[in-house]
């Protein structure tokens, strides 16, 4: 297989967001359209065949983890689920909230994801 073949098979090329303005997925907190844009971004992700791969990419990088809509989840949703898991396990420590790989499997819609 050549490098060109590898590039043609990349999952990103099958994403629903291809051709969508990336700004939709990375709204500024001060933007008056933030809520509506976030809803639209999540809607783009809903039926996407590669949202699991997108979420895994986000979970593999702390910068991505903190910002934007990835795999149909917002940073706030990701933090909330992570915090809940830690509290239930009796391991809550605010300093570890940016360690995404520790809880990727807790999103049931993504099944058992591995990092």
In words, what does this structure look like?
The chain is mostly helical and 115 residues long. The protein has one domain (3-110). The chain has helices spanning 3-8, 34-46, 51-59, 62-66, 75-88. The protein starts with a helix and ends in a 27-residue tail after the last helix.
Chain-wise SSE layout:
Blueprint: H1 3-8, H2 34-46, H3 51-59, H4 62-66, H5 75-88
Kindly report how far apart the N and C termini lie: 25 Å
Class by SSE composition: mainly alpha
Q: What gross morphology would you assign?
A: globular
How many strands?
0
Major β-sheet, in short? none
**SS summary, helix count:** 5
Rg result: 15 Å
Helix coverage percent of residues? 40-55%
Outline the low-pLDDT stretches.
Answer: 1-5, 100-104, 111-115
Strand content: under 5%
The overall pLDDT, averaged over residues, is 76
Question: Which descriptors apply to this entry?
Answer:
115 residues; mainly alpha; 41% helix; globular; disordered N terminus; disordered C terminus
Summarize the structure.
The protein is 41% helix and 0% strand. By secondary structure, the chain is mainly α.
């Amino acid at each position: 297989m050549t490098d060109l073949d590898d590039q043609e098979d990349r999952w990103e090329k099958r994403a629903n967001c291809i051709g969508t303005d990336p700004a939709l997925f990375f709204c500024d907190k001060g933007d008056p359209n933030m809520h509506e844009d976030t809803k639209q971004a999540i809607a783009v992700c809903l039926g996407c065949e590669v949202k699991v791969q997108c979420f895994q990419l986000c979970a593999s990088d702390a910068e991505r983890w903190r910002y934007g809509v990835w795999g149909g989840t917002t940073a706030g949703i990701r933090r909330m689920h992570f915090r809940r898991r830690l509290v239930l396990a009796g391991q809550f420590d605010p300093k570890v909230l940016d360690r995404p790989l520790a809880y990727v499997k807790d999103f049931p819609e993504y099944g058992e994801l591995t990092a």
